[in-house]
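Late entry, adenosine-5'-triphosphate complex.
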Amino acid sequence: MSHALVSVKGLNVHFKEPVLKGLFLSVKKGEFVSIVGKSGVGKSTLLNAISGLLKGEGEIHAPPTIGFVFQNHSLFPWMTVKENLSFGLHENDEKKIQELMALLEMQGKENDYPTQLSGGQQQRVSLGRALATNPSLLLMDEPFSSLDGHTRLRMQEWMMNLIQKIDTTTILVTHDVDEAILLSDRIVVMKDGSIHSEHVVPFTKPRLNEIRYQQPFQELKKKIIESYD
Ligand SMILES: Nc1ncnc2c1ncn2[C@@H]1O[C@H](COP(=O)(O)OP(=O)(O)OP(=O)(O)O)[C@@H](O)[C@H]1O
Ligand SMILES: [Mg+2]
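Prediction complete; structure with ligand written out below:
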């Protein structure tokens, strides 16, 4: 088994009540893992703890360079697309910006402001900003949940293509089990403050959107949703 890039051992987080209770999670380099589970179960708390934004008790090993994409586009409204992308970079690296614009399929929109972009475009820029520093680990907390159904489908398809091009380890929190199955190598279900079950996604990548209408996909989806309770 290859070495774990992220390892969480016996993580406890208490707010008013215990939220994470001795949670264990290990993610290998290059792996795409989704975290699902009921609302309030502690998915965002876990992601925040892995990123270092939140301190818990227990052991967490994660790489120092992490990109984080939040649920609601966290772009700076007073900065253009290009300025938003440059934000994390040390200098104005024009080559890197152009590379990102191509990856995001946003060429020509360098000087637009976030309010001039569609929701899907804004979320792509947020992702681009998270990727600008070539992070070893990408964390995404419900990145597409604020988008309408059609745009979300298109973004999931786009994300599938993107992860074939970039070499990043990713942890995605989502409520959308279709999205989790489409993109992940492995899906973990959180329940009662820890990882309740794990599901390996056996379908070869890249996966087409149509895969979600096939029976093995639907069977896996049912199994995952049934493990929430
Ligand atoms: N900063 C905080 N202070 C106090 N309680 C908190 C804080 N952050 C989260 N909680 C509580 O911890 C629990 C887990 O919250 P968390 O946001 O991790 O859930 P989640 O699984 O991401 O839910 P959702 O799917 O709705 O986003 C909830 O009961 C929440 O009220
Ligand atoms: Mg959350």
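The longest strand covers residues 4-14. Will revisit in the morning.
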